[in-house]
Design goal:
It contains 7 helices and 9 strands, in the order αβαβαββαβββαββαα. By secondary structure, the protein is α+β, with helices and mostly antiparallel strands.
């Protein structure tokens, strides 16, 4: 049961849905190849000994749609990073004509999210799957990084995907009004920005994580949808 009642409801989110055909990858984009992934895997394995458990830090959709096998989850805090709607989406939750937004970790502040401990065994294969799902373009939208997290059960190290400010999808600073407008109006073949925001806030609150910035955004997005 949520401790607070969200202004952004399933009914308001449903108003944003529309059927969008997937336009497919940008033909002008350059994608990572097998050699790139092998280099990233080698670098990560050098930073985290095989004797240590592999954790993945979720701060957005990974919390409510992890799509990974895991044996434990912990609420954890990453210092020096914050959630930011700073990824321009011309696919998935937006289109080339009407780009949407998704979150990434950007520098500064702090972020409370969920750390997932992956199952043991065949770690390189699990990492390879994660990297190929989250990091695809040159220059990459994300940098995979090993972050030091704090949890009630002690410190841990976790893989996180942070924004690459030199990547093709980085928006740079956006006004609150622009973020609200794009979340309230943009939709792609995976769904709308409002749906993404709704599920993120709902699942954070269910775990006792209250992000005051996202809470304000869901109130503003709800009002924008209701007014249209």
């Amino acid at each position: 049961m949520l401790a607070r009642t969200m202004s952004l409801t399933e009914e308001l989110v449903a108003r944003c849905f529309r059927t969008v055909e997937d336009a497919g990858p940008d033909p002008a984009a350059t994608h990572l190849d097998d050699r790139d992934y092998e280099e990233m895997l080698d670098l990560f394995e050098a930073q985290l000994p095989a004797s240590e458990p592999l954790w993945l830090f979720g701060y957005g959709s990974l919390i409510w749609k992890p799509e990974i096998e895991h044996v434990e989850e912990r609420v954890a805090l990453a210092r020096g990073w914050h959630r930011s709607f700073c990824m321009n989406m011309t696919r998935w939750r937006g289109t080339r004509e009407s780009p949407g937004l998704m979150m990434a970790l950007d520098r500064g502040g702090q972020c409370k999210g969920v750390a997932f401990r992956l199952t043991d065994g065949d770690r390189r294969h699990k990492l390879d799957r994660l990297l190929r799902r989250e990091v695809t373009l040159k220059p990459t939208s994300y940098h995979p990084r090993l972050l030091n997290l704090v949890s009630d059960k002690g410190p841990l190290k976790a893989l996180a995907f942070v924004i690459n400010r030199k990547g093709t999808t980085y928006t740079g600073p956006l006004s609150e009004g622009e973020v609200v407008e794009r979340l309230a109006t943009c939709c792609g073949h995976w769904g709308s920005g409002a749906d993404y925001l709704y599920n993120t806030v709902k699942n954070l609150e269910a775990r006792g994580i209250h992000d005051s910035h996202l809470w304000r955004l869901q109130e503003l997005v709800a009002a924008r949808i209701a007014a249209s």
